[in-house]
């Protein structure tokens, strides 16, 4: 391995360590308490080294949120691929989204700015709208299959996204006084009623 390749690999390793340390700190202390100084201390480098790789904390948060959206996108596609009918696909996609949110709370909070400023404002990537796109596709296919007006697909799928994201947000921000089973039951009933309404 040449000197250039060795240096490049070392840079990539430090960059990955910065992101890993930031995510680890967020899990233990929360996103709000994250700082460039704490990240530098965690990887045992000086703060200027961290600034060599990322302009500021927001750039680190954005990078982590991209990874979160990418992981979510993969989970949604896996769920969709297991079923043939748009109705089954829709239910599976919503369930996968729900499960991702609660298995990866730190990612979800960062991705959607729950209790903090949303990262990456104005820097949208394809994966950011993956869930909305997939439920729109299923909604459109169900409406078309039922002989209803396909022009309603956009409005209807947006309403479902709002309901699902709203339930997750309530659950995450008020988890001490709302039973998880109640919210999952509400989610299932909402999706079932949504499919029937199409």
TrEMBL record:
PROSITE patterns: HTH_TETR_2. Keywords: DNA-binding, Transcription, Transcription regulation. It comes from the Bacteria. Residues 35-54 bind DNA. Residues 12-72 form the HTH tetR-type domain. PANTHER family: ACREF/ENVCD OPERON REPRESSOR-RELATED (PTHR43479), HTH TETR-TYPE DOMAIN-CONTAINING PROTEIN (PTHR43479:SF20). This is TetR/AcrR family transcriptional regulator.
């Amino acid at each position: 391995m040449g000197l250039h390749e060795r240096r490049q690999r070392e840079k990539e390793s430090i960059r990955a360590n910065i992101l890993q340390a930031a995510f680890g700190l967020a899990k233990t202390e929360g996103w709000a308490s994250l700082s460039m100084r704490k990240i530098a201390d965690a990887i045992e480098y000086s703060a200027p080294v961290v600034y060599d790789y990322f302009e500021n904390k927001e750039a680190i948060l954005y990078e982590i949120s991209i990874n979160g959206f990418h992981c979510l996108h993969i989970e949604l596609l896996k769920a969709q691929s297991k079923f043939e009918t748009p109705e089954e696909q829709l239910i599976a996609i919503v369930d996968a989204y729900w499960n991702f949110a609660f298995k990866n709370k730190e990612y979800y909070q960062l991705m959607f700015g729950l209790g903090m400023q949303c990262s990456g404002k104005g820097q949208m990537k394809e994966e950011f709208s993956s869930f909305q796109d997939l439920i729109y596709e299923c909604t459109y296919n169900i409406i078309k299959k039922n002989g209803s007006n396909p022009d309603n697909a956009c409005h209807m799928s947006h309403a479902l996204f709002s309901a699902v994201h709203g339930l997750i947000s309530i659950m995450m921000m008020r988890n001490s006084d709302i039973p998880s089973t109640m919210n999952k039951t509400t989610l299932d009933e909402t999706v079932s009623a949504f499919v029937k309404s199409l």
